[in-house]
Amino acid sequence: MTKQQTVLVTGGAGYIGSHTIVELIENGYNCVIVDNLCNSSYESVARLEVLCKTHIPFYHVDLCDREPMERIFKENKIDSVIHFAGLKAVGESTEIPLKYYHNNILGTLVLLEMMQRYDVEKLVFSSSATVYGDATRFPDMIPIPEECPVGPTNPYGQTKLAIEKILADLYNSEKETWKFAILRYFNPIGAHPSGLIGEDPLGIPNNLLPYMAQVATGRREKLNVFGNDYDTRDGTPIRDYIHVVDLAKGHIAALKYLDARQTGKGICREWNLGSGKGSTVFEVYRAFCDAVGEEIPYVVTGRRAGDVINLTAKPDRAKQELKWQTELDVATACKDNWKWATENPFGYQLKGVKADFST
Ligand code: NAD
Ligand code: WQD
């Protein structure tokens, strides 16, 4: 890289954004964060500054608010954007869909308008394997390639697909200009090995790893395993779990890919970010118990509505084109997750009080 580039990281105080900032700074990029802290706290930014030994400009701004968004673009010479900001709870999105459509889509539209106005052409977007919906509709397409027909089954997934389409339309309108990398993440897990940053869900965790961690630290009684009657090797569903540090590195690979494109040669393309290896719930449970060093209580309950049997990535495109592949396994992710959980049993909350140093 010739000159130090500045990346605007939307949602940079959140789980995946914060881990990506560590990798960006290690790779010589400057970062500016914009986050409204609706699902995170300023404490993660404070810790990032400790971890990265540098000041990271932070804007406590909602992406849907045009004026403060414009100020960010005026005050900083932004070269590219990584766009994590969004609401992500699948269940909640079925209960309050308008909030999800408003936040995720309007926030993206405002961001793109500012990028257009200030001549920022490169964007890496956080999409999700959830856009494939129930990919078992296409048994020949498991593991799932990017060509698999999409078909989200919940409003959250619809917002991701809608944003993918907005990006494609914008690219088609000015193919020489826009450079868009759409990254479809599979199941991110784990935490930074320092134990300083990690996933900090509000309320009762929806996802497997954070829930198990809260059982292991005594905050919850037992894990509910949602069904053991699937047609898999042990009866529980299969997912492609990916260490969040590997995932973060995938963003650097995508950004470098966009950086390397010649002027006048735009792109809008999707890449799966997964390991290509599927694990069952019981396999992850076993790896986590091994990391903890004791058996975690669990009970098998009924299937969770909307769960599918198998979501495993075919990650070949990212390997060939982005020169990226996962390096860390589920056991390492469990070990790192457990370090984060034991060193921060209440996440970023200090003594049970939400820390917020943004004022
Ligand atoms: P997260 O909730 O930890 O981070 C998202 C951040 O965006 C939060 O800090 C939140 O405060 C912020 N935010 C939300 N709406 C905003 C708005 N309007 N303006 C400003 N900030 C806003 O979630 P994450 O797990 O880090 O996910 C990051 C992105 O990756 C999301 O877009 C999510 O949909 C996507 N994704 C996540 C997963 C996963 O399992 N974690 C999987 C696939 C895709
Ligand atoms: C994994 C497995 C559960 C919790 C979700 C979103 C998806 C993407 C990633 C954003 C499943 C089982 C879970 C528990 C359990 N996010 N499980 N007991 O559902 O694969 O994906 O996060 O884009 O869109 O849907 O992840 O961690 O919730 O579940 O048995 O308490 O663990 O049934 O098989 P999921 P998850």
From TrEMBL:
Pathway: Carbohydrate metabolism; galactose metabolism; Carbohydrate metabolism; hexose metabolism. It catalyses: UDP-alpha-D-glucose = UDP-alpha-D-galactose. GO terms for molecular function: aldose 1-epimerase activity; carbohydrate binding; UDP-glucose 4-epimerase activity. One of its GO terms (cellular component) is cytosol. GO terms for biological process: galactose catabolic process via UDP-galactose, Leloir pathway. Keywords: Carbohydrate metabolism, Galactose metabolism, Isomerase, NAD. Mutarotase converts alpha-aldose to the beta-anomer. It is active on D-glucose, L-arabinose, D-xylose, D-galactose, maltose and lactose. This is NAD-dependent epimerase/dehydratase domain-containing protein.
